[in-house]
């Protein structure tokens, strides 16, 4: 009896266990069903072309590059930079008519994703056009201006070529006269003249090398604004007198306001004055003074002027005077020992000191260089 009762209890317990498992299984399945029914039904997505068009429209206006979107052959979207570059009536045009360049059209009609196009807007400009297909028939064209990079490359090439030419000219004279002196039978008076020429050309080459090194240093430091306090009044007077030298100091007419303080590089400011005063004395009227003045202007700016009373400079030359090796009269400049780099150095010094330069000249009257430099008060 006891054994029978025990067996029935075991069967009962086993049955209850299976029943519990079944109930739990049903509850789990019911919870999954309720969860599925409670989830919001997702709407079918809009067409991929519509989504892309909306996203592109929002992003395009914030781009720093000109962008165009074409649907097939027709322009459907352009940002403000593309409108400024190519015109206001691009939307609806055939993309080939909008770009109007054989290389750009070849990119659109071909399989490449990138092309370099020369003369897209102006004769010497260079643009890189990147093409990216989006969805369906939509294509995005991105225009990247590579002209500044090419200009820098050309400027570097021109600079090296000009520097090489400027160095080669005095070097050729030195070698030629030295070889002549090494020959027998050269009269004494010619020997003295040849030695003078060699000395003059060697000094000219030395001055050119020194100016090239100065220009290189100034350009390397152009993003490093000077923070050292300097007495601008003392430095301007010292630089002007050094630029004139003892033989020409009598032609200087100085008007220097005292105690003007600034934050700057004293050596570079002195060099700036030496270059300006030397130019004014070389190319101004030898019988007239060169005026150097320093005053305190508006908004705590120091006003520095260097003025000669010479033949003046024609207006067409003035925008180019700060270019390297630019000369209004190459023969006269070389004869006077000019390197063609003085005003280029001045320009870079002024830019490093966050200043401004203006050159005013009138033919038959003279030339004035006006420089504005921030004082210590304006930096404080």
UniProtKB/TrEMBL annotation:
Enzyme Commission number: 2.7.13.3
Molecular function (Gene Ontology), one example: phosphoprotein phosphatase activity
Record-annotated Histidine kinase domain positions: 162-377
CDD domains, alphabetized: HATPase, HisKA
One GO-annotated biological process of the protein: cellular response to phosphate starvation
Pfam families: HATPase_c, HisKA
Cellular component annotations (GO), alphabetically ordered: plasma membrane
Keywords associated with the record: ATP-binding, Cell membrane, Kinase, Membrane, Nucleotide-binding, Phosphoprotein, Transferase, Transmembrane, Transmembrane helix, Two-component regulatory system
Gene3D superfamilies (UniProt xref): 1.10.287.130, Histidine kinase-like ATPase, C-terminal domain (3.30.565.10)
Protein's recorded name: histidine kinase
Gene: phoR
């Amino acid at each position: 009896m006891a054994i029978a009762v025990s067996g029935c209890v075991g069967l009962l317990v086993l049955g209850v266990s299976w029943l519990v498992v079944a109930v739990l299984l049903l509850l789990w399945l019911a919870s999954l069903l309720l969860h599925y029914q409670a989830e919001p039904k997702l709407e079918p997505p809009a067409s991929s072309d519509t989504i892309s068009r909306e996203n592109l429209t929002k992003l395009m206006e914030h781009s720093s590059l000109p962008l165009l979107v074409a649907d097939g052959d027709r322009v459907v979207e352009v940002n403000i930079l593309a409108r400024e570059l190519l015109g206001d009536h691009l939307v609806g045009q055939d993309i080939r008519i909008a770009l109007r360049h054989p290389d750009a059209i070849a990119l659109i009609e071909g399989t490449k994703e990138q092309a370099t196009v020369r003369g897209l807007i102006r004769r010497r400009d260079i643009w890189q056009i990147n093409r990216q297909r989006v969805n369906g028939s939509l294509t995005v064209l991105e225009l990247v201006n590579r002209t500044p990079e090419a200009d820098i490359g050309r400027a570097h090439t021109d600079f090296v070529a000009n520097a090489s030419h400027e160095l080669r000219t005095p070097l050729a004279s030195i070698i030629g006269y030295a070889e002549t002196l090494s020959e027998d039978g050269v009269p004494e008076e010619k020997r003295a003249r040849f030695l003078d020429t060699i000395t003059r050309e060697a000094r000219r080459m030395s001055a050119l090398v020194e100016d090239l090194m100065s220009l290189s240093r100034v350009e390397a430091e152009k993003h490093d604004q000077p923070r050292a306090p300097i007495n601008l009044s003392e430095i301007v007077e010292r630089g002007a007198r050094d630029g004139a030298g003892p033989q020409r100091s009598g032609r200087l007419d100085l008007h220097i306001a005292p105690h003007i303080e600034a934050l700057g590089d004293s050596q570079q400011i002195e060099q700036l004055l030496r270059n300006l005063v030397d130019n004014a004395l070389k190319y101004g009227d030898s019988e007239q003074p060169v005026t150097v003045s320093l005053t305190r202007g508006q908004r705590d700016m120091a006003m520095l002027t260097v003025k000669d009373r010479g033949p003046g400079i024609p207006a067409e030359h003035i925008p180019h005077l700060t270019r390297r090796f630019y000369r209004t009269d190459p023969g006269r400049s070389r004869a006077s020992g000019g390197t063609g780099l003085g005003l280029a150095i001045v320009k870079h010094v002024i830019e490093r000191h966050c200043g401004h330069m203006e050159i005013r000249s009138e033919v038959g009257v003279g030339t004035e260089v006006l420089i504005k430099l921030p004082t210590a008060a304006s930096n404080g």
